[in-house]
Design goal:
This protein is an alpha+beta fold and about 475 residues long. It has a single domain, classed as Up-down Bundle (Outer membrane efflux proteins (OEP)). The chain has helices at about 1-15, 70-80, 85-100, 155-220, 225-260, 290, 295-315, 360-430, 435-470, 475-480; strands spanning about 50-55, 110-120, 135-150, 280-285, 320-335, 345-355. The protein has a four-stranded antiparallel beta sheet with strand order 2-3-5-6, with no helix packed on it. Strands 1-4 form a two-stranded parallel sheet. The longest helix is centred in the middle third of the chain and has 68 residues, at about 155-220. It is elongated and about 140 Å long. The relative contact order is 0.17. Residues about 5-15 have low confidence and may be disordered.
């Protein structure tokens, strides 16, 4: 009997946690991202061939690889003052405090109660012929209760709170990564708009010269006036491009101000030119098996599934008996000086068990709903993983194609420059008209615009690769950066 009682006591104290134990999902069983083999490097464009370094370290402050002090300054400002990042960090702190409060269920609950009552006692109400009297009644009591976690419902509840901390931490890192990537992309876009405005203005200046020459030729009767109208129409089209680029540049500056936590009227981002940026040559590419432990959105989806798994245990434990130990002491007296007399003490010790017998199917279907929530969370997790692998594959191919496009645009730009020089030489030799010179120069600057757009796209796809790999937040402790670490 003593052995059986000891076993029951051990089960009561230790218990077994109800519900499934959560395990980290296995990564996709692939060794590369793209269909076939991942590219090892891009072709050389503008003298730079980017190399994809397999299983290399991803820096948490990856934007420093662009070697732009102005970009670094804007990102520092954004990380220090962006309200979205501050909100994510506050959410993380709140979830951590909720977890700390959840640990309180593992400790006894102790309450104290004190009361003072002035009362008139009437014996007549009890059929006694004694005169009534007035007296004071002082009470002091304390109670202790402790719920035994026999079936692990409380442990599963705390496990769910811990998973919510993991969700909030991953969300904070995702906000940090998204903010840095958005700032970098916007700075690159603004630099491209500035370069395009300058190139377009050069085209406009040449077009104006073409219009003037065509006017002279039309007045001299050597060309029809329709040539003048065609050139004016083309000039107007280029002039309309300037306000469009200026509007996009203004919107980029306003967006940078908002990302940096300021209203546009009080913040002016430092101007960045494309020449101020250096394209990183060595690009890290994490192993597919490591990606699921690095991407914040994957970690958030996994932690959400973990919390859903813990909720199954909570719902299962709610269907089983619960055991509570209670105890209390108290004292009652009519005078404050005698509040703690030996004959005024009272105490109690007990244990109680409560088991649900009939709940109309409520507890059963709550558990079924928890299982359905877990299955949904796991399906969403798999979808996030698929999207992550798709983004990495797309970005690797995009960088490969960007280099090819830029190389072709460089060739077109070089050809247009050579044509412009040849026409200029022919003009100086007297075998070409000046209008031919202006047309060749216009073609050169049009090729220059296309080349600028290709350069900006290559920079932005480089940013996209760092974001697709998770941004290197796991290396934050090594360089003092990160949403949840010191900066």
């Amino acid at each position: 009997m003593r052995r059986g009682a000891g076993t029951l006591l051990l089960l009561a104290v230790v218990g077994c946690a109800a519900g499934p134990n959560f395990h980290h999902p296995h990564p996709p069983s692939v060794s590369h991202y793209t269909n076939g083999a991942d590219p090892e490097s891009t072709i050389s464009a503008e003298g730079t061939a980017q190399k994809f370094e397999r299983d290399a370290r991803v820096d948490a402050d990856w934007w420093r690889l662009f070697q732009s002090p102005q970009l670094d300054a804007v990102i520092r400002e954004a990380l220090a003052h962006n309200p979205g990042l501050a909100a994510a960090q506050a959410s993380l702190r709140a979830s951590q405090d909720n977890l700390r409060s959840g640990y309180g269920i593992f400790f006894p609950s102790v309450d104290a109660d004190a009361g003072v009552v002035r009362e008139r006692y009437s014996p007549v109400a009890l059929g006694q012929a004694f005169p009534s009297n007035i007296f004071n009644l002082f009470t002091l009591s304390s109670s202790v209760s402790y719920a035994l976690d026999v079936f692990g419902g409380q442990r599963r509840l705390v496990e769910g709170l811990h998973a919510e901390v993991d969700v909030a931490r991953a969300d904070a890192e995702a906000t940090y990564l998204t903010l840095a990537a958005n700032v970098a992309n916007t700075v690159i876009a603004a630099a491209a708009y500035r370069a395009e405005i300058e190139a377009t203005q050069q085209i406009i200046d040449l077009q104006k010269q073409q219009v003037d020459i065509a006017n002279v030729q039309a007045q001299a009767g050597t060309v029809p006036y329709s040539n003048v109208l065609s050139l004016k129409s083309q000039l107007a089209s280029y002039e309309a491009m300037i306000p469009q680029f200026e509007q996009k540049l203004a919107q980029s500056d306003d967006l940078l101000a908002a990302l940096a936590g300021h209203v546009p009227a009080e913040y002016s981002p430092p101007p960045v030119r494309l020449n101020d940026l250096v394209l990183p040559e060595g690009l890290p590419v994490s192993l597919p098996s490591d990606l699921i432990r690095q991407r914040p959105d994957i970690l958030a989806a996994e932690a959400t599934a973990h919390a859903a798994s813990a909720n199954i245990g909570v719902a299962t434990a709610a269907m089983l008996p619960s055991v509570t130990l209670t105890g209390g002491v108290g004292a009652t007296t009519t005078t404050l000086n005698n509040l703690v007399p030996a004959n005024g003490h009272s105490w109690s010790v007990g244990a109680g068990a409560t088991a649900p017998l009939f709940e109309g199917g409520t507890l059963w279907f709550k558990r079924k709903a928890a299982i359905d929530d877990y299955q949904q969370a796991m399906a969403l997790y798999r979808q996030v993983v698929l999207t992550a692998f798709e983004q990495v594959a797309d970005t690797l191919r995009a960088l490969d194609h960007d280099a090819k496009i830029l190389a072709a645009q460089d060739e077109a730009l070089s050809t247009a420059a050579q044509a412009s020089h040849l026409v200029q030489a022919n003009y100086e030799a007297g075998i070409a008209a000046y209008l031919d010179v202006l047309v060749a120069d216009t073609q050169f600057h049009q090729a220059q615009l296309a080349d600028l757009q290709a350069i900006a796209t290559r920079y932005q796809d480089t940013v996209a690769l760092f974001a697709a790999l998770g941004g290197g937040w796991w290396n934050a402790g090594k360089n003092g950066t990160g949403a949840t670490g010191a900066r």
